[in-house]
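Marked as duplicate of an earlier ticket. Keeping the data here for the record.
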Amino acid sequence: MFEALIALALGAAVVAAAATGVMFQPGEWYRGLAKPRWTPPNILFPIAWTLLYAMMAIAAFRVAAGLAGGDLPEGAAPFAMAGLCLWATQITLNAMWSPIFFGARRGKAALICICALWTAILGTLICFAGADAVAAALLVPYLVWATYAGALNAAIVRMNPPAAFRAPAD
C-alpha cells in the first residue's frame, strides 16, 4: 500500500511538471525566433518528454521504495534521502522552465533556470548512484537531454535580439 502512495505522489509530480509544458506551448512567438539548424522538430519534444518523465518517476520510485522498505545497500540511505530532495528540486525547476521561456518569454531567465535544473539533475543522478545504480542510469538520458536543451536555449538567446524576449501584452 505504501509503495502505491509513493508511486501516486511521484506520478502526480511528473504530471504536474508535464502540465506546464502543455499550458505554455511554443506557439507563433517561438516559431518566429531564429533558431540553430540543430533545433529538433517540434513533434520530438512531447515524445522525448513522455519517455523522460516516465524514467524520472521510475528512478525516484526505485529509490523511495528502497528507502521506505529498507531494501537499499548498507550506507545508501543518506544518498537516497539527498537524491530524493534533489529530485524534488529538479522536478520543480523542470516545471518552471516552460512558463519562464514560453509564457513570460524570458530567454535569459529560462537559461538560468535550465542551468539550475541541469545541476539538480546531475546531483540527483550522483546521489541515486549511491543508492541504486539502475535509478541513476535511468537519469542519464534526462541529463543528456537537459544539456542539449540548455545549449538550444543559449543559442536561441544568442541568435535573437533582446526585444524578441519581451513579455506578451495583456
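See parent ticket for discussion. The chain has a mean pLDDT of 94.
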